[in-house]
Write a structure and sequence with these properties.
CATH class: Mainly Alpha
CATH architecture: Up-down Bundle
Number of helices: 15
Shape: globular
Distance between the termini: 58 Å
Number of strands: 0
Bound molecules: heme C
CATH topology: Cytochrome Bc1 Complex, Chain C
Radius of gyration: 23 Å
CATH superfamily: Cytochrome Bc1 Complex, Chain C
Strand content: under 5%
Number of domains: 1
Largest sheet: none
Length: about 400
């Protein structure tokens, strides 16, 4: 089998696609057992660990590891596309690929959040409370949006969003982003998928091994650990936390500015970059046919940053890995005080309903005034043995 050039270029994009397929398959299996009800969800997820059903536990843990790795590959894929300056390809198809790639991050993030809520243990409950609080920071529309999210939330709707609505949106975007292009290639989509599956084998093996040796904790462990004795496992919830971190360290308007507006502004600017550049180019040509000095200059400048063959490749390699390393190092650092198993030390099923499993009057903000207090919630997450 001969590997054409594009396999190396889009290795991590292809990897994310193959992992998505595996995520779909393991997810179909999990839906056969999951119960989307407040009182049964947790038990229905725990049953994989309680019986001798080893394959069930393994698939459940794979499903979480795959989620983590999909995000990892998406970050690397996005960085590499950025460095290859793909936003300078101004033909219509390339622009659509750039835009849909950026848009795909939305259903992926929503799949992560809704997936974390499904098991309905304390971290799920906490996340379900934090998301409305987060959007509640938006001026004017925020409070109404927050109320809508709380009112609309039911376990069943969250489940339907996770297994039907969000995957459907993702498939439509994926079709525009990669399938339509792959279909036109020699051998079509099958060949594209097969080749990427073959070159993804090392990562698939890593996941299979990780899922056996480092199970992601959702169930209460046999011996309940002390609050800070939990394991520091790279769990998918870390990715959601990164937007919440400013809310812990910055006060007043600065927190939503860093966590919400700046993130949104950068995101929008980036996904529409080829469209803005295209417009600029057209304008420049109208003013001065044949010449678009600024645009050429811009290209030239970017091209000059990384110059010749090997050095250029090395610089690109280092940039991707240093940036990805910094993002993941920061995530790890931020989650270090909150061990993945830490919540179970106080919130475990042996403690009975209320503190053992999230209360069922959870929508009642009068009874639970702390739920509106993002600061308390975050500090309880990061320093559970201090703030509670
Ligand atoms: C040291 C024990 C302890 C640990 C560890 C702990 N909690 Fe708690 N948690 C409590 C107690 C006690 C309460 C009830 C506080 C109250 O109502 O005053 C609580 C309440 C909560 C609430 C509900 C708040 C409310 O008012 O209803 C959430 C959500 C929560 N914890 C999430 C978590 C998460 C997520 C973790 C792990 C990161 C965690 N907890 C770790 C002791 C703990």
């Amino acid at each position: 089998m001969r590997f054409e050039k594009y396999h190396g270029r889009y290795y991590f994009g292809g990897l994310a696609l193959i992992l998505l397929l595996l995520q779909f398959l393991s997810g179909v299996f999990l839906t056969l057992f999951y119960q989307p009800h407040l009182l049964e969800a947790y038990a229905s997820v725990q049953q994989f660990y309680k019986t001798d059903f080893a394959v069930g536990a393994w698939l459940r843990d794979s499903h979480r590891w795959i989620a983590f790795l999909i995000f990892f590959s998406l970050v690397v894929h996005a960085l590499r596309s950025l460095l290859r300056k793909e936003f300078l390809n101004l033909e219509k198809r390339s622009r659509v690929i750039w835009l849909t790639g950026g848009l795909l991050l939305l259903p992926m993030g929503a799949l992560l959040a809704s997936g974390l809520i499904l098991p309905w243990e304390w971290k799920s409950y906490w996340l379900m409370e934090m998301i409305p609080n987060y959007f509640g920071q938006i001026p004017y529309a925020g409070p109404a949006l927050k109320q809508f999210l709380i009112d609309a939330f039911t376990m069943n709707r969250n489940f339907v969003a996770h297994v039907v609505i969000l995957p459907a949106i993702a498939i439509i975007l994926l079709d525009l982003h990669v399938f339509s292009k792959a279909r036109k290639r020699k051998g079509g989509l099958h060949r594209y998928l097969l080749k990427h599956a073959v070159i993804s084998i090392p990562f698939i093996l890593i996941i299979a091994v990780l899922a056996v040796y480092i199970p992601m904790p959702t169930a209460d462990p046999e011996i309940i650990p002390m609050p800070l004795e939990g394991a520091f496992i790279p769990a998918p919830e870390w990715f959601v936390l990164i937007f919440l971190v400013p809310f812990m360290y910055f006060k007043n308007a600065l927190a939503p500015f860093l966590g919400l507006y700046l993130a949104l502004a950068l995101y929008l600017a980036l996904i529409f970059l080829p469209y803005m550049l295209g417009r600029y180019k057209k304008d420049a040509e109208r003013r001065e046919p044949g010449g678009d000095a600024f645009f050429k200059e811009f290209r030239h400048l970017l091209g000059n940053v990384l110059k010749v063959g090997f050095m250029r490749k090395l610089a690109a390699f280092l940039t991707v890995f240093v940036t990805a390393g910094a993002v993941f190092g920061f995530l790890y650092y931020q989650t270090y005080p909150s061990p993945t198993l830490g919540c179970n030390s106080c919130h475990n099923i042996a403690m009975g309903r209320g503190i053992g499993a999230p209360p069922d009057h959870f929508k009642d903000r009068m009874q639970e005034p702390k739920l509106d207090d993002s600061q308390w919630m975050l500090e309880h997450w990061f320093y559970p043995n201090v703030v509670w």
